[in-house]
Design a protein that fits this description.
Layout: H1 6-17, E1 22-25, H2 27-34, E2 42-46, H3 50-56, E3 62-64, E4 72-76, E5 79-85, E6 87-90, E7 100-103, H4 107-112, E8 122-124, E9 128-130, H5 135-141, E10 143-144, H6 150-156, H7 159-171, E11 174-175, H8 177-185, H9 195-206, H10 211-217, H11 219-225, H12 236-247, H13 253-261, H14 270-278, H15 283-294, H16 304-314, H17 316-328, H18 335-356, H19 370-375, H20 381-395, H21 403-417
Parallel strand pairs: 2-5, 10-11
Antiparallel strand pairs: 1-2, 1-8, 3-4, 4-5, 6-7, 8-9
The protein binds adenosine-5'-triphosphate and magnesium ion.
């Protein structure tokens, strides 16, 4: 077990000094046991009530953040800590929000309401790990397993279904059998969840190192959250192709979302556009994904000139992503597929080389600018047209990206333009 940051020890001591129990809980314990180094969120559970927590941290910067969960956020020497009273939740009539939240005196009850065994561990430097549900064994085996009866736990809160998938994808864990069956059986609950939560869990899932196998195995569950992609739009084979592609792509959100929508996103991406808008994906990512989907049919060739042109039109980053996506979706192992895969791999490497060599790829990198052209006597729209012509000429390797050569080129080009 790694050492706790001093601020965490201090928080435990302050609560205990005020006469209460306090334990580290949640993801931080799980991640400490996994040997994760850069843990960001530190959650402490205590039998103190919110007002008692605030009193124990008098003089330190505080914010009430948890609403009726009673969470108090404390800042101790630059470290944010969330302090939450032991609590249980009851009566999830909408499968999303508990009807009542009740503070309870025992850690045991607080741990029992948590979602998965690996998330239901508590730790104190004096007592060590407190494990009432076999969380350490599941952690060692790499298993996501519900605390308690899966059916009931998912019916209480459908978001747990997506959390299970997200943890499986980010931790590269398997999902225990009864838990997996509970997820399959309750997938209809996913249609009712708040879209922002769905978006965040899915983005986390898609960017996990095991996203590919999770999507391939649990596509029916995912289709519950994404009815736009349910059969007949995308059948089992399509989803498995998406899984294979995800496994071959770097974990960038726009790239992974584009992979998810590559096959089912509809002609010209209309379906994808609707889906991403419904999930309130941020505008930048949304635009990036839709643009990549537009590039499904763009013919990519592994040559310097065509790649410079591609990078110039798409931007260096998007061009690289497009090449990766096209490559990830090539099916089969026949001669055509092998050749095409190899060509796209060459294209990717060549593109990186071009970028590394800082070859001229956009107007900004051109060795002449608008001022140079105005000095030659060009005005208004003619300046933009001349710059564009310079870029074309450089991309076609007719002129070097050199100031003197480009100015000479503009002079000759002006002659034609007149
Ligand atoms: P992450 O690394 O993603 O932050 P985490 O385990 O810390 O993982 P959080 O969402 O920060 O997850 O929640 C903290 C803890 O609260 C969890 O470890 C779990 O014990 C509990 N928890 C969170 N969401 C739920 C839920 N929907 N149902 C039951 N318990 C939950
Ligand atoms: Mg957390």
């Amino acid at each position: 077990m790694g050492n706790l940051p001093p601020q965490v020890n201090q928080a435990l001591a302050l609560l205990e000094g005020a006469g209460f129990e306090a334990f580290l809980v949640g993801g931080a314990v799980r991640d400490l046991l996994r040997g994760v180094r850069d843990i960001e969120d530190w959650d402490v559970a205590t039998n103190a009530r919110p007002e008692q927590i605030r009193a124990a941290f008098a003089g330190w910067p505080l914010a009430d953040t948890g609403g009726r969960h009673g969470t108090v956020t404390v800042g101790l020497d630059g470290q944010r800590l969330e302090i939450t009273p032991y609590r249980v939740e009851a009566g999830y009539s909408d499968h999303r929000h508990p009807d009542t939240v009740r503070f309870v005196p025992s850690l045991r009850e607080d741990l029992a309401r948590r979602d998965f065994t690996v998330n239901a561990l508590a730790y104190h430097p004096r007592t060590g790990v407190i494990d009432l549900v076999g969380g350490q064994r599941d952690l060692a085996r790499g298993l996501i397993r519900c605390v308690g009866e899966p059916e009931a736990r998912f019916r209480e809160d459908g978001l747990r279904i997506l959390r299970a998938l997200r943890f499986a994808a980010t931790l590269s864990f398997r999902i225990e059998g009864a838990t997996a069956r509970g997820m399959e059986r309750n997938r209809v609950l996913l249609a009712e969840l708040a879209v922002e939560r769905v978006r965040d869990e899915l983005t986390g899932l898609l960017c996990g190192p095991a996203a590919g196998p999770v999507v391939a195995r649990f596509w029916r569950v995912l289709a519950g959250a994404l009815p736009e992609l349910a059969p007949p739009i995308l059948g089992g084979r399509g989803w498995r192709r998406v899984g294979t592609a995800l496994a071959a792509l770097p974990p960038q959100p726009a790239l992974r979302w584009a992979a998810l929508l590559w096959e089912g996103g509809g002609p010209s991406g209309v379906l994808a556009e609707g889906l991403l808008a419904r999930l309130c994906l941020d505008r930048r990512t949304r635009a990036g994904v839709l643009r990549l989907l537009q590039g499904r049919e763009v013919p990519v060739q592994a040559g310097r000139k065509p790649l410079r042109r591609l990078a110039s039109q798409w931007g260096a980053e998007a061009a690289g992503q497009l090449i990766a996506l096209q490559g990830a979706f090539i099916q089969g192992s026949g001669p055509w597929a092998r050749r095409r895969r190899a060509e796209l791999q060459r294209a990717g490497a060549l593109l990186e080389g071009l970028l590394g060599a800082e070859d001229c790829l956009s107007l900004r990198e051109l060795a002449v600018n608008g001022h140079d052209l105005t000095a030659l006597g060009l005005q208004g729209r003619a300046v933009g047209r001349a710059l564009q012509a310079c870029l074309e000429a450089v991309l076609e390797e007719q002129v070097a990206n050199d100031r003197t050569e480009l100015l000479a080129f503009v002079r000759s080009w002006r002659g034609i333009d007149r």
